[in-house]
Amino acid sequence: MSFDELNLIEPILTALHEEGYVTPTPIQQQAIPQVLEGHDLLGIAQTGTGKTAAFTVPILQILHQTAQVERHAPGRIRCLVLTPTRELAIQIGESFRAYGRHLPKLRSTVIFGGVGQHPQVQALKRGVEVLIATPGRLLDLMNQGFIDLRTIEVFVLDEADRMLDMGFIHDIKRILPKLPKQRQTLFFSATMPGQIQELADSILRPNPVKVTVTPVSSTADTVTQAVYMVEKTDKADLLEHVLQDKNIRRVLVFTRTKHGADKVVRTLLKANIGAEAIHGNKSQNHRQRALSNFKAGTTRVLVATDIAARGIDVEELTHVINYEIPNEPESYVHRIGRTGRAGADGTALSFCDDEERAYLQDIQKLIRRQIPVVQNHPYTSSAVAPVPLSGGPAIKRPKGPAGRPARPGRGPQAGGSGRPEGQRGAGSQGGGRPERAGGNAGREGQRGGHAAAGRPAGTAHPEGGNAGGTSRGGQRRYRGGSGR
Questions:
Q1: Which residue windows does the record flag with biased composition (Low complexity) (predicted)?
Q2: Using one digit for the tens of pLDDT, what is the confidence trace for 103-142?
Q3: Residue 50 falls within a domain, yes or no?
Q4: Per residue, what are the HEC states of the chain?
Q5: pTM of the model
Q6: Is 427 a member of any domain?
Q7: Least CB-packed of 76, 78, 215, 340 within 10 Å?
Q8: Residue 473 falls within a domain, yes or no?
């Protein structure tokens, strides 16, 4: 199937072709016709599935066609897209502009916390038809009288499970009553824990169309996976050793904490390896500049936390390196899902120390495969045993800072820098509570970001590729110890 078969209007088809898109992804094939027909939609989809185009493309067509017939007053907000993070909001805004470039009367803007509100307010005053927003800044500007949602025709709630993880559900429940009851609603989530299902049932019309793509446990066959068993103290040297391979042209390195990301960057810079970090403690300008440098190839290594990386979609990403094994197995699928997209080859390397062996075991159970171990590398440690897929002795969980096994739902008790970014109770410098209306707008979006929009190299469809997963509704928590 091609986009030409989806009953799309010529201006949108032209924009898609200019972007190099020919074949829609499965979620686009299923969702676009249903959205065009005016149905409410429940989409269960992970990163890399083409989810963003699955709603931006038909929304643009609906708004264009109804404007031609009903002669709406220009500049009123007709579509609201609510998303948990600034990075994702920016990418969705870019998608609306790209696919709607030949529909000049449809204007869009993005609003989010962490930056001054004046430019956003000025854009709203000039008039927009599509508003992409994060919850806290939206409520803030609504309370100041700059935004009226009574004219909304299409409402999109994106990354609902991440909204729950980040504590935004109460904000959403404050926003929903401000929307007109007569509207089309599109609801997207990577997972469907009970609270998210209840929320979906409360805002969707009865019998919505349900679209499900790629379960969370899947990893792409195009990604070559390998694990290095290494002592924690040797990880920095091992990373330098691996990066001596000039075939690793553009690599995304994952750490569990913001402090860890900065430390890795300092180590690489001392070794004359170009690297930058992206995480919640970095300013918005820094993050955008680092991402632009990485996309342009001027920065070879981008070091990121899981939360910040959810807004990243980069063409020609050849390698992902898990400098630290994620304590949530679904995050592993998310991480390696950023390479090997749309049939391109990718490589995912993981550095596993003794304290992380339990995490590796969880990952292998989730993806139902044994990850090959790299043998005889310069930092091979006999003290770090390989992890079998099944059988073998029980693997102890990492211990907390006082030598006791960390309790579920608890992280280390010492300072925020040692906690995984986005965890409740993290340090106040960007990793704290989500923004609330009238509160500190600088904190919003610093706790999340799931890649959704954009196009990987060589793809024939928007945002195509293998899908990743997310956390299980916040139920699996950091176990302490190795993330300190």
A1: 400-411, 449-460
A2: 988 999 999 998 999 999 999 999 999 999 999 999 999 9
A3: yes
A4: CCHHHHCCCHHHHHHHHHCCCCCCCHHHHHHHHHHHCCCCEEEECCCCCCHHHHHHHHHHHHHHHHHHHHCCCCCCCCEEEECCCHHHHHHHHHHHHHHCCCCCCCCEEEECCCCCCHHHHHHHHHCCCEEEECHHHHHHHHHCCCCCCCCCCEEEECCHHHHHHHCCHHHHHHHHHHCCCCCEEEEEECCCCHHHHHHHHHHCCCCCEEEECCCCCCCCCCEEEEEEECCHHHHHHHHHHHCCCCCCCCEEEECCCHHHHHHHHHHHHHCCCCEEEECCCCCHHHHHHHHHHHHHCCCCEEEECHHHHCCCCCCCCCEEEECCCCCCHHHHHHHHCCCCHHHCCEEEEEEECHHHHHHHHHHHHHHCCCCCECCCCCCCCCCCCCCCCCCCCCCCCCECCCCCECCCCCCCCCCHHHCCCCCCCCCCCCCCCCCCCCCCHHHCCCCCCCCCCCCCCCCCCCCCCCCCCCCCCCCCCCCCCCCC
A5: 0.56
A6: no
A7: 215
A8: no
